[in-house]
Amino acid sequence: MEIEEGHSRIHERIENGAYAGSLAMVESEQDIALEDTDRIQGRSALVNNVKAASSLAGAIRSTLGPKGLDKMLVEADGSAIVTNDGVTVLETAKVEHPTARLLIDASSSQDRAARDGTTTTVILVAELLQNALELVRMGVHPSVIVNGYDLAVNESIGELERVAEVADRPQKSQVVGTSLQGKGDSSLCNLLATLAMEAAEALVDQEGGDDLERLRVKRLQVRQGSSMDSSLVNGLMLLKSRVDMATPASSDGGVIAIVDGGLENKKLEINASIEVEDTGVLQGFHDRAIENLQASVGHLKSLGVDLLIARDGVSDEAIPLLSKAGIVAYRRFERKDMELLSKITGASSVRDVLSLKESDTGVFSRRSEESIGEVKHTLIEGSMGGGMTLVVRGSSPAVREESIRIFNDAIGVAFRLNRSPEILPGGGAIQAHLARFLRSYALKQSGREQLAIEAYAAAMESIPRILAENGGRDPVDVILSLAADQQEMGPWIGFNLDEGRNSDMKEAGVLEPLFVVRHALSGSTEAAISVLRIDDVLWAKTDPSTPDWKGEEFED
Questions:
Q1: How far is it, in rounded angstroms, from Cα 214 to Cα 389?
Q2: What rounded mean pLDDT belongs to the chain?
Q3: For residue 434, which of 407, 456, 417 has the smallest C-alpha distance?
Q4: Percent of the chain whose pLDDT exceeds 90
Q5: Hey, how many other C-beta atoms are within 10 angstroms of the C-beta on 26?
Q6: 279 among known catalytic residues
Q7: Which of 111, 306, 337, 409 is labelled catalytic?
Q8: What is the largest CA-CA distance in the chain?
């Protein structure tokens, strides 16, 4: 009874305005907190985000597939990059919208994990969001759409694993070739695909993480020759020449030592001056420096070292000592080159020459120097293997850099394919099959999630639709014919853009890795769900600009 009376008194005080001041104070505090912030809520926030995603996807959709077109990216200094690689376009473009940045992050994640499927990921995110917006306008809550998308992606991944087959050696080559279609001249792509397969097979038994193919294969640009003259050499090749040209230019093997420092006298790390009154003292300094260098060179000779690699410098006084000891030396090495050379030769990098032990040395099988384009290049081959150099040639830096991007995609797919050899049909076949499969699965759902699953299926059809558009074909006819032929002959039927008709993708050699398609589905769905969960966007206003004092003076 007392509680009810208390509630009635509070209600009366609210009606009489007793709490009006406090409520107004809370509202005013919120207004003050957000007075420097623009705010978009509810459906307006979703519409804004979907527009940003669609705009970004529209910028790269024409690059999809073997008939995709190139993009020219012009920098502020006037330099230009011509590429067909979706992730390169996205990461180079200046994008400020946070939702667009989210899509770029999803594309970058796809590139790091699978090295292919970056354009597909962005297109799927945009399609999923566009279809979700239509459902929201129909009255379906975003949480229901999220649940439906979760069901759809889980069922899709299960269906992918059911359809997938294990690839043999020729099919792996076809997979790598498919991943490069449309990224450059067909002859160059075939050459780089062959080199990538060769490099990936050499790394099969090597220990390391998912980025092993980038760490164990050095990319070296050479001005001389055409892009078709590019080659893959075993060992480390770089723009270096020995410190003493009087030493032999080549050798058939020997002991190698790698020093993460230099062979020179240490200098003071602080600004200081020494006043010498007797010339004998100065000579003593010089003699002790020579003795230290002799001790270091003598230690190397006692270990039987034939080749010395130093990250820092080799002093002029040490050069004749090394030559007399029969040791060929190289200096000013980058750390990543030293790490690769260590893998090739089995040598361990040490900080100081005098701390070098016999167990730290390695063995190289061959060393040679040659002039390429009037520049000295050195090739060091090791007995341990597992390290290579891609020598990229071309008429211009832009051509060579595009060749490197193509090779990166090819070796990334080839290397991962050796670990996960399951493959799927390309040519939009697997996406068309998933669309049919999901529409059948949607009928098993009694709630509104059925609508979300059907929207997910429609997003899957965007891939064969865009492939057809980029190939100059009618997308509606292609989608309908694919659905009919797959219903009769199975999921491996796809649209052959070269022949302009549906065919068996296995016979046509148009194949995709399972890990690329699976990661594209999971990554795009995760990104789309992240955007769907946003119903409030707060934009911080920019700082006030400097007042236009001249304008005010003019008005006065």
A1: 11
A2: 85
A3: 456
A4: 59
A5: 9
A6: no
A7: 409
A8: 108
Question: Nearest CA to 539 among 228, 55, 234, 99?
Answer: 99
Task: Give the position of tokens 């049919």.
Answer: 436
Among 63, 83, 85, 337, the one annotated catalytic: 85
Q: E strands within 235-331?
A: 236-238, 254-259, 305-310, 328-330
pLDDT at 190: 93
Scan for tokens 């012009």, then name that residue.
Answer: 74
Catalytic status, residue 85: yes
| Residue 530 token pair | 């992240």
- Cβ within 8 Å of residue 532, ≥6 positions away: 46, 129, 132, 142, 145, 146, 149
Candidate list 63, 83, 88, 118, residue with the active-site label: 118
Single-letter amino acid, residue 196? A
Residue 75 backbone dihedrals phi, psi, to 5 degrees: -80, 170
Distance between CA atoms of residues 163 and 140, nearest Å: 32
Is 87 a residue whose pLDDT tops 50? Answer: yes
d(CA 185, CA 205): 32
Give me the phi and psi of 498, to 5 degrees please.
-70, -40
Provide Rg for the chain, Cα atoms: 32
Dihedral sign for Cα atoms in the order 175, 181, 183, 184: positive
The residue with tokens 């410098």 is 313
- 72 vs 26: CA distance, rounded Å: 53
Q: What is the pLDDT of residues 463-476, one digit of tens each?
A: 999 999 999 999 99
CA–CA gap between residue 539 and residue 38 (Å, rounded): 5
How wide is the angle at C-alpha 458 spanned by C-alphas 456 and 460, nearest 5°? 75
- pTM for the full predicted model: 0.81
Kindly state the helix (H) or strand (E) to which residue 404 belongs, with its residue range.
helix 397-419
How far is the CA of 449 from the CAs of 147, 308, 530, 544, in angstroms?
7, 67, 18, 47
Residue count of the chain, please give it. 556
119 catalytic per annotation: yes
Task: Match 């399972």 to its residue by tokens.
Answer: 514
The alpha-helical segments, DSSP class H, found in 65-141 are 86-92, 98-114, 118-137
Banded model confidence at residue 541, pLDDT cuts 50, 70, 90: low
Structure confidence at residue 148 (pLDDT): 97
CA–CA gap between residue 195 and residue 174 (Å, rounded): 14
Query: 228-267 burial string, b = 16+ CB within 10 Å, else e?
Result: eebebebbbbbebebbeeeeeeebeebbbbbbbbbbbeee
Give CA–CA dist 458/437, Å, rounded: 11
383 touches 254 (CB < 8 A): no
Helix (H/G/I), strand (E/B), else coil: 227: helix
31 three-class SS = helix
d(CA 13, CA 19) in angstroms, rounded, equals: 7
70 DSSP 8-state letter: P
Closest CA to 128 of 436, 459, 451, 464: 459
Indicate which residue of 63, 88, 119, 525 is catalytic.
119
3-state helix, strand, coil in the chain (%, to 5): 55, 15, 30
Active site residue 244: no
- Give the count of beta carbons closer than 10 Å to the beta carbon of residue 424: 26
Paired residues of 37 in beta bridges: 540
